[in-house]
């Protein structure tokens, strides 16, 4: 219940960053400064469902993260760096710098 409440109170970009971090930690890995593939196979649609957002909205966030060089797609693999916690996007598409503690 607490997780659902927290999930709905955070902006979608931060929810996405946290779920990606959780997927890494679930496999005993962590995000790093360089791009690393998510250690479990996951699609953008599945990520969208996990953070209670639609796929199109998540794709826009990923596009902005790609521009910031903290996300990349290689085939079906999704690669992320720790910088996703530093650069988060507002719903309107404006960039804002968020200094979130890295869990």
What does this protein look like?
Helix 3 (44-50) crosses helix 4. The chain has a three-stranded antiparallel sheet with strand order 1-3-2. It is an alpha+beta fold and 103 residues long. The chain is built from four helices and five strands; from the N terminus they run ααβααββββ. The chain has helices at 2-9, 12-26, 44-50, 55-67; strands at residues 36-37, 71-74, 77-80, 87-89, 95-97. Strand 4 and strand 5 (95-97) form a beta hairpin. It starts with a helix and ends in a 6-residue tail after the last strand.
Keywords:
103 residues, alpha+beta, two-stranded antiparallel ribbon
Task: Summarize this entry quickly.
With 103 residues, the protein is of the alpha+beta class.
Order of helices and strands: HHEHHEEEE
Question: What is the name of the CATH class?
Answer: Mainly Alpha
The poorly predicted ranges are 89-103
Count of DSSP strands: 5
User: How are strands sequenced across the largest beta sheet?
Assistant: 1-3-2
Q: Find the CATH superfamily.
A: Winged helix-like DNA-binding domain superfamily/Winged helix DNA-binding domain
Question: What structural class do the secondary elements suggest?
Answer: alpha+beta
Radius of gyration: 13 Å
Q: What is the number of helical segments per DSSP (H or I, 4+ residues)?
A: 4
The oligomeric status of these chains comes to single chain
Write the layout of secondary structure elements.
Blueprint: H1 2-9, H2 12-26, E1 36-37, H3 44-50, H4 55-67, E2 71-74, E3 77-80, E4 87-89, E5 95-97
Antiparallel strand pairs: 1-3, 2-3, 4-5
Helix pairs in contact: 3-4
């Amino acid at each position: 219940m607490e997780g659902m409440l927290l999930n709905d109170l955070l902006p979608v970009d931060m929810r996405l960053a946290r779920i990606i971090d959780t997927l890494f930690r679930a496999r005993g890995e962590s995000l790093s400064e360089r791009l690393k593939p998510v250690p479990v196979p996951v699609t953008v649609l599945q990520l969208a469902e996990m953070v209670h957002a639609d796929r199109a909205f998540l794709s826009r966030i990923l596009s902005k993260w790609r521009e910031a060089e903290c996300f990349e797609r290689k085939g079906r693999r999704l690669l992320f760096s720790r910088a996703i916690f530093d650069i988060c996007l507002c719903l309107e598409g404006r960039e804002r710098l968020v200094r979130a503690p890295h869990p």
